[in-house]
Amino acid sequence: MRSEDLFIPRPPHGGRLHAAALAYGIAPEDWLDLSTGINPQPYPAPPVPADIWLRLPEENDGLEAAAARYYGCDKEHVLPVAGSQAAIQALPQVLTGKRVGILGATYAEHAWAWHKRHARVLDHDDLERAADTSDIVIVVNPDNPTGRLIDPARIVAALAKLDSRGGCLVVDEAFMDTTPEASLAADAGRPGLVVLRSLGKFFGLAGARVGFVLAPATVTRRLAQILGPWTIAGPSRLIARHALADNAWQTHTRVALEQASMRLSALLQELGLGTPTGCALFQQVMTPQAITWSEGLARQGILVRCFDNPDRLRFGLPACEHDWQRLEAALRRIKEEQ
By 3-state DSSP, what share of the chain in percent is helix, strand and coil, each rounded to 5? Predict the structure, then answer.
């Protein structure tokens, strides 16, 4: 058996609420789930007309045009996909190049998708070295789970190096919506650049499974052939179209999320978890007691994301004042028991 045929388990993710409910004997509805980094105040989806359920999704419904306006690029460079995860899994079938470098620590699905090409996970500050020594470089910006945001000028310089050798740069911008000034979406169509976007985080529409690949037409056409027709359900296309066009909601939400993230950072620092880093949708702390804090919260019905190597915790945003008070009280109980 060839090594590439061996089964490699998928990496774990946040949001495994039912597994936590079984493990701790707490009903799912009694949990406060802060494990995902998803906006807890999602876009208010419009009603779905009954006849949409009777028809297959249609591509000429205006979704691509709405996405092009939102991301500031040409419609011909926009491919809707079933969440950016679908593109992450399919890109190794589209992009050529033997040497793959991934800036880490980051979203583990990238390394999983490229494991057959023995992708190297490099230090998150090694963008320039990655561009010099790789054919394909993958950057998550802002990073998940650290929240690190790389200056777009550095990314553009790395792209120029890669493109000069026929290489490719993949930029996963799933958490970029609160910092659009740092996005490379407007450069979609530039040779060698693939940008991934998602409606799951900022818009809080993870269940709709809507994402976009912004790339040269040669890439989007090949991906479309691999993924096949009707990748996004009709109701999801309708909701996404409304969300992408609602400028007032987007502006208000950016401010609200920044304020909530600052509050979360201050709370974690006050309670002695160190100096948090993150973005507007989550905060993470590095602590050798990550498991202790995670299990202490879980016993109180609060789910956060615990990582190892290095040990860290990622906290999503509470949805309401009751949830904020519940989180603070639980953290204080754990601290008093230490």
Answer: 45, 15, 40
Contact between 42 and 203 (Cβ < 8 Å): yes
pLDDT in tens, the chain (338 residues): 344 444 455 556 565 888 999 999 999 999 999 999 999 999 999 999 999 999 999 888 999 999 999 999 999 999 999 999 999 999 999 999 999 999 977 888 898 899 888 889 888 789 999 999 999 999 999 999 899 999 999 999 999 999 999 999 999 999 999 999 999 999 999 999 999 999 999 999 999 999 999 999 999 999 999 999 999 999 999 999 999 999 999 999 999 999 999 999 999 999 989 899 999 999 999 999 999 999 999 999 999 999 887 899 999 999 999 999 999 999 999 999 87
Cα–Cα nearest to 152, from 171, 129, 125:
171
3-state secondary structure of 296: helix
pTM score of the predicted model: 0.93
Q: Where in the chain is the domain with CATH 3.40.640.10?
A: 55-245
> Using the 8-state DSSP alphabet, how is residue 48 labeled?
P
**Before 310, cis peptide (omega within 30)?**
yes
In the sheet with 277-279, reading across from the earlier edge strand, the strands are: 277-279, 282-286, 312-316, 305-307
| Residues carrying CATH 3.90.1150.10, the chain | 3-42+248-337
The residue behind tokens 């998602």 is: 198
- The topology under which CATH files domain 3-42+248-337 is Aspartate Aminotransferase, domain 1 (3.90.1150)
Residue owning tokens 């953290």:
331
Say if residues 302 and 314 touch (Cβ distance below 8 Å).
no
For residue 189, give both structure tokens: 């169509």
d(CA 256, CA 105): 28
Looking at the chain, how many residues does it have? Answer: 338
For residue 179, give the nearest of 250, 88, 119, 108 by alpha carbon. 250
CA dist 266 and 260 (Å) reads 10
Where is 305: in which H helix or E strand? strand 305-307
